[in-house]
Design a protein that fits this description.
This protein has about 375 residues and is of the alpha/beta class. It is about 35% helix and about 15% strand. It is built from twelve helices and twelve strands. It is globular and about 70 Å long. The two termini are about 30 Å apart. The structure holds pyridoxal-5'-phosphate. The site of pyridoxal-5'-phosphate has 13 residues, from α3.
Length: about 375
């Protein structure tokens, strides 16, 4: 039997409509989208429709570049520090995903000065700390829209305004918010991923504001406007485009559904403490802790539910959650935290059953 899937921040199930849209491009239409003949042109046209579908959810004055993942899109975006007015400083939130945080720290080894910006105990950026950290050497400020571990929604446009006052570029990782909540209009670089929006794995995209100069990360045949070489997969592009369009079409419905699931979750886990902001939070994320709980044991006791202990992205790394640490939680509190992620295909009954299983296992441990 399949477990109840409550790990929608790690990845989402693929939407049936997306599978249907992709299949012809996997099975029948195998043309290379960069070939000049008819089959190639048909594939290229499908890629361009997908690009428009993704662009439809993003600010206007920019272009969409397909990549193999959001991690690649973020690495590509951060290359902008090499060409931005000879500046040598990077500032990113301490709670960024490893794709940004670790990349920013890697730039230190390349002679850049990297600053990690503080957040408060709810995970929200400290705007005074931000102001204090920036100067005329700042090339790039990075702040994500929705945190993947705690769901906190940052005031990205406000952060971007401050970054721009210092002449810096603003990078926003919208992976967990794309297709669900409003996308910041002031960012200069925006990264997203297919497999978090009921689309396929193995594709992401970077939106680049017109006028922003970006050195290529991958060199070769000059595809993707010379910035990201390599043959595109029409099936993956079509899948991402269809998934984005579906999110846009269903946005109200999806949000109402996830909000109901979250209300059920909050009431059934009322004995637990919520990590992160309650007010500025994406409803599909519930990160909670219970003092004294051994989460590794809880996870092996509750095999019928797929959920996460901290960030699934960092799982296997053995590292304690840098996000929960940044909120000021003690190591024991971090180890007693779990993350539940609600999505489009979950039902209220599933949340109720999962809560009963998790609460029972927690009681057994603590009593
Ligand atoms: N950014 C955030 C907020 C994420 O949650 C993830 C994946 O978990 C990523 C970036 C990386 O996305 P991808 O798996 O497409 O590389």
């Amino acid at each position: 039997m399949q477990p109840i899937y409550l790990d929608n921040q790690a990845t989402t199930p693929i939407a049936p409509e997306v599978v249907d849209a992709m299949l012809p491009w996997l099975r029948d239409n195998f043309g290379n989208p960069h070939s000049p003949h008819l089959m190639g042109r048909q594939a290229a046209a499908a890629v361009e429709v997908a690009r428009e579908q993704v662009a439809g959810l993003l600010p206007r004055a920019g272009r969409v570049i397909f990549t193999g993942s959001a991690t690649e899109a973020l690495n590509l975006a951060m290359g902008a520090v090499r060409t931005h007015q000879g500046r040598n400083q990077i500032a990113v939130l301490d709670t960024e995903h490893a794709a940004v945080r670790d990349t920013a720290l890697w730039y230190r080894t390349q002679g850049f000065e990297t600053r990690l910006l503080r957040v408060d105990q709810t995970g929200l950026v400290d705007l005074d700390d931000l102001e204090a950290c920036l100067d005329e050497q700042t090339a790039l400020v990075g702040a994500m829209l929705v945190n993947n571990e705690i769901g906190t929604i940052q005031p990205v446009d406000q952060i971007a305004d401050i970054a721009h006052r210092y002449g810096a570029l603003m990078l926003c990782d919208v992976v967990q918010g794309f297709g669900r909540i409003d996308i910041p209009q002031q960012a200069d670089l925006i990264a997203l991923s297919g497999h978090k929006i009921y689309g396929p794995k193995g594709i992401g995209a970077l939106w680049v504001r017109d006028g922003v100069d970006l050195p290529p990360l991958i060199h070769g045949g000059g595809q993707e406007q010379g910035i990201r070489s390599g043959t595109l997969s029409p099936a993956l592009c079509v899948g991402l485009g269809r998934a984005a369009k579906l999110c846009a079409d269903r946005r109200k419905e999806d949000m109402a559904h996830v909000t109901k699931l979250a209300e059920t979750g909050h009431s059934l886990f009322a004995d637990w403490t919520v990590n992160g902001s309650l007010g500025q939070r994406y409803a599909g994320n519930l990160n909670i802790r219970r003092d004294g709980l051994d989460v590794a044991r809880l996870m092996s006791d509750v095999r019928g539910v797929a959920f996460s202990a901290g960030s699934a992205c960092a799982s296997g790394s053995g590292r304690p959650s840098h996000v929960l640490s940044a909120l000021g939680l003690e190591p024991a509190q971090i180890k007693s935290s779990i993350r539940l992620g609600f999505g489009r295909y979950n039902s209220i009954e599933e949340v109720e059953q999962a809560a009963a299983l998790i609460n029972q296992a927690a009681e057994n441990q603590l009593s």
